[in-house]
Design brief:
The protein has about 300 residues and is mainly β. The protein has 4 helices and 14 strands.
């Protein structure tokens, strides 16, 4: 089991593009996986990649489980419901990196210990009275644990979305991870980097397809990342998702044609029956390693 620790750290670091804290860019819903990281304007109470102004208009409970390589697991649950002329939301997310054997400087066993990250997030989104604009904000408490060491943070995100009904299009801007990290003198060598996200979505007229385009600007990063995804809504409640991004260039291992083509890509499928939705998504890295997720949503 102890051999899983360096493997886990390596794989988690591969999931993101050099952020100070990699867990902030980890997938938390199957829709994120299926859209390849795109979809900041796709409503979900459990999504980590979302504009705070975006929210489902009704009452929705959603839960998911994401399975990463090296037995890393993400479990998520969220709830959104109407509140004070807007929509309030609350979610809990947890990533477990596993249980490991501890050793002292003399290589004597000190017992097992666990490592994981936990988020508690609350949010509120509301439309403006005279303009087709929604605005919203979220606040989240973050705690990361490795053995007896902990790092904590209090972070805020802000966003707005403009809806152009005539063109079936939406445009959004959001600011993420604005706050402060505290505690953990030994582990706190990194920093939490703020992000600015420009987003757009377009529902096509002649196809049952909604396209999502997101551009992420990260502090102290020279080049922005671009994500493109689509969601087909077919008959009988069936949905098919796909997505890719500019990370395809970084993920290209040039090992073979198939890995080069599918690397940094997401695929997903969903089914809606009445008030219940079931979704599955997968994301494939350039190395051929994949992440899988399943979530269930219930409107009430």
């Amino acid at each position: 089991m102890k051999k899983l620790f360096p493997v886990s750290l390596f794989l988690i670091s591969c999931l993101i593009a050099e952020t100070g804290f990699p867990a902030f860019d980890v997938f938390s819903s199957s829709a994120e996986l299926g859209l390849g990281g795109a979809g900041f304007l796709n409503p979900s109470p459990i999504s980590a990649k979302i504009n705070p102004a975006v929210a489902d208009s009704g009452r929705l409970f959603s839960t998911s489980i994401i399975r990463f390589p090296a037995s890393i697991t993400s479990q998520n649950a969220g709830l959104s419901l109407p509140w004070k002329s807007g929509v309030g939301s609350i979610s809990v997310r947890h990533i477990s990196y596993g249980t490991f054997e501890g050793y002292d400087s003399d290589f004597q066993s000190t017992g097992t210990y666990q490592s994981g990250d936990t988020w508690l997030k609350v949010g509120f989104a509301k439309p403006m009275s005279r303009l087709p604009i929604r605005y919203g904000t979220t606040a989240q408490y973050f705690s990361s644990t490795l053995k007896e060491h902990q790092i904590k943070a209090l972070l805020f995100s802000f966003g707005s979305v403009l809806t152009l009904h005539r063109f079936r299009a939406k445009f959004g801007v959001s600011f993420h991870q604005v706050g402060k990290m505290f505690g953990g003198e030994i582990l706190a060598n990194g920093s939490i980097k703020t992000k600015t996200v420009l987003s757009g979505s377009k529902q096509l007229i002649h196809l049952p397809l909604t396209l999502f385009l997101d551009t992420i600007f990260e502090k102290n990063t020279a080049e922005p990342e671009v994500f493109l995804g689509g969601n087909f809504k077919l008959k009988n409640g069936l949905q098919i998702r796909w997505g890719t991004s500019s990370r395809k260039l970084d993920h290209n291992t040039k090992q073979d044609f198939l890995r080069s083509t599918l690397g940094a890509s997401g695929f997903g499928i969903g089914f809606i029956s009445g008030a219940t939705s079931i979704n599955y998504g997968a994301f494939i890295f350039g190395s051929g390693v994949s992440v899988h997720g399943l979530d269930i949503g219930i409107k009430f």
